[in-house]
Fold:
Amino acid sequence: MKSEYQHFIDLNDYPVQWWLNVLELGEKIKNNPSDFAHECDGKIMATLFYEPSTRTQMSFQTAMIRLGGQIIGFDNPANSSVSKGETIKDTTKIVSNYADILVIRHPVAGAAKAASLSADCSVINAGDGGHLHPTQTLTDLLTLKTEKKRLDNLTIGMCGDLLNGRTVHSLCKALSMFNNRFIFISTKHLSMPAYIKDIIKANGSSYEEVNTLEEAVDKLDVLYMTRIQQERFSSEEEYLAEKDTYVLDKQKMKLAKKDMIVMHPLPRVDEISVEVDDDSRAMYFRQAKYGVFVRMALIMTMLGEKKESVTLKGKTFGKINCSNPNCITNHETYLPKSFIPCGDETLIECEYCDERKLI
Ligand code: NCD
Structure:
């Protein structure tokens, strides 16, 4: 299936050199933002946020305004025709005729991909359920390039909700391309999904898994903390059992290297105690600031590219449906199913949400 427009659904849809070009442009913008003040004069960006957001939504809006463009959109679907039962297909079709670029965040995995199938402009994925968050990854990569001066040969600890945290999924997929070593710090229930671990190995990076911060913190160049994703749990009880397991405090920071940096996509709940904020290694507020520059670079790049893209590469397997209940194909059932065979044809992967299924 083809689209007339270039979309940004998953960073790994593009070659590494393309990411590096976006980051380089982001750095130029960071150093001289006023040089770019009219790059998007007359252009309109629509932000369709079906899920709460502070940083991602506002940094996209700030980015477009700083480029000279204008913004439309909603941040509460209850105030749009979504509340009347309108499908993603129809909402996207309509709004993409009003705007030049569309940014979508949705609680269901694969929603941005679904939007790209019917959009008459470029679509950017600003987070789809617990699946991916590629623009946060661009933000994280710019932070690493600026603060660590490299993207390779790093030991990166990722701590917290690695199962439901879309930021760490996207970041692992990206950083595994640069010969890095990951240490995953989580409980057994919230460990990194198998498909991400397979990607890390296939890309030539390595990982290990531990249960406590103390076991890992002295080995790290980067510690990426994450929030337990309460909204992805099926019950309050399950959430409470996981909450407060990991708290980064002054005591644990004493065990870390002098040049380790602490990142967090934010919002933080209580996984980083506020006393860490004054430590010069705490990078999370600066990280959020870098998000504007890199999103300016991404908007410019997407609007500058008028290339056609392939939206669905996979195929159907009879009447087989995706087995992930939180996949968009199980919420909006008109969507064409699409699976990619993994190795032999007994294992297939849903192209929208990456859920695997044996057939
Ligand atoms: C993250 C998200 O929405 O996935 N936040 C963000 O975009 N900066 C992380 C989170 O909500 O925990």
